[in-house]
Specification:
With 369 residues, the protein is of the alpha/beta class. It has 13 helices and 15 strands. The strands form 4 sheets. It has a 7-stranded parallel sheet with strand order 5-6-7-8-9-10-11. 51% of the residues are buried. The structure holds 2-succinylbenzoate (OSB) and magnesium ion.
């Protein structure tokens, strides 16, 4: 499979509704897309880095720079057998996992098309449908959040996750539980608390949460193990887990009882599969996180979620929750009972809307081997 050329592009997509976390509010996405052109097929990858280096060190601009100056030159013109081989051929660059994932995942997509198999089968999945949950950001008022939850519950989503931070936590949770006593409910703090707030954090225990995601520092697995010891609520790590070694450390330290896997955060499908395998071997349930992806990243998330260890509803939800019009056809849709069906089309299983992507593109460069 010779990579004849690689196209890098940045698209801009306004969100249907703003998305706010403890890091701040996003209203428009600036997304880097990678296309690998090989042997008559185009493989697509999406870089999940945000506009600012808040969730992690990477951003849209650092990803563009690393892809353009280092990763793309190392792959243009190269002969590769598989997406898995792509990880071994990454040049020696520390970090920048989201940039690497965009390229590696594009190669996986191309490989699936060349082999004429669905991507979800190629990565080792075996589910015909995946359980969908939603992540709901911080709103302007508690009432607005309660309305959003009611909408998503009515749409059939199997799990509701709300963002929390100091000042937006117990009070709103009490209202959520009063109105929705039975829903499967999680909270995501995006690293906004510190361990000296342990007494405050223990108050999460009264809301019967499925999990509390990433309450403490992103670079601290050990301190999460101290917190987990103090709490009955299961902790889930997101920002802290960058690879399978971290997953193993977190599991053995009992720093969490659940893991969130994001393709970009761990550097692509190969490492995501390793994190999944480590978790499955230790009977730690995993679920697929989201990064406000366009349809391309979203379709990769659907494929990943078909692996057998993904036993909890993830943050993979319908395209229409984010975009007026998504860049794939069909868009990702969710059945009234809260599942996303997986299809048998070769590759990602969702066609690309070339013209729309062209219209959304603000910069584009093609590199030939
Ligand atoms: O922590 O899961 C997170 C979005 C941006 C950055 C971090 C996170 C999120 C989400 C969004 O929760 C999930 C989604 O894409 O729906
Ligand atoms: Mg998270």
């Amino acid at each position: 499979m010779r990579i004849e050329a690689i196209t890098l592009r940045e698209i801009r997509m306004p969100l249907v509704h703003f998305f706010e976390t403890s890091f701040g509010r996003t209203t428009e996405r600036r997304i880097v897309l990678v296309t690998v052109h090989c042997e008559g097929v185009d493989g697509w990858g999406e870089c999940t880095a945000g506009e600012h280096p808040f969730y992690c060190e990477e951003s849209t601009d650092t990803a563009w720079y690393v892809l353009r100056d280092y990763l793309v030159p190392a792959f243009a013109g190269v002969d590769l057998q598989s997406g898995r081989e792509a990880t071994y051929r990454m040049p020696g660059i520390r970090g920048h996992r989201m940039a690497k994932a965009a390229l590696e995942n594009a190669v996986w997509d191309a490989e699936a098309q060349v082999k004429q198999v669905p991507l979800w089968k190629l990565v080792g999945g075996n589910r015909k449908e995946i359980a969908a949950g939603v992540s709901i950001g911080i709103q302007d008022s508690h009432e607005q959040l309660l309305e959003k939850i009611a909408e998503e519950v009515a749409a059939g989503y199997q799990r509701i996750k709300v963002k929390v931070k100091p000042g937006w936590d117990m009070e709103v949770l009490a209202k959520i539980r009063a109105q929705f006593p039975e829903i499967l409910l999680s909270c995501d703090a995006n690293s906004s608390y510190t361990l000296d707030q342990v007494e405050h954090l223990k108050q999460f225990d009264q809301y019967r949460l499925l999990m509390l995601e990433q309450p403490l520092w992103s670079d601290e697995i050990y301190l999460h193990s101290l917190l987990q010891y103090e709490m009955t609520t299961s902790l889930c790590l997101d920002e802290s887990i960058l690879n399978a070694r971290h997953a193993l450390a977190a599991i053995q330290l009992k720093a969490c009882r659940i893991l969130n896997i994001k393709l970009g955060r761990v550097g692509g499908f190969s490492e995501a599969i390793r994190v999944h395998d480590v978790s499955l071997a230790s009977e730690i349930p995993v679920w697929c996180g989201g990064m406000l992806e366009s349809g391309i990243g979203r379709s990769h998330n659907v494929a990943l979620s078909t692996l057998s260890g993904f036993s909890l509803p993830g943050d993979v939800s319908a395209s229409a929750r984010y975009w007026k019009e998504d860049i794939i056809d069909p868009e990702v849709t969710v059945a009234p009972w809260g599942t996303i069906a997986v299809n048998d089309v070769a590759g990602r299983g969702y066609a690309i809307k070339d013209e729309l992507i062209e219209r959304l593109t603000v910069r584009k460069e093609t590199f030939r081997g």
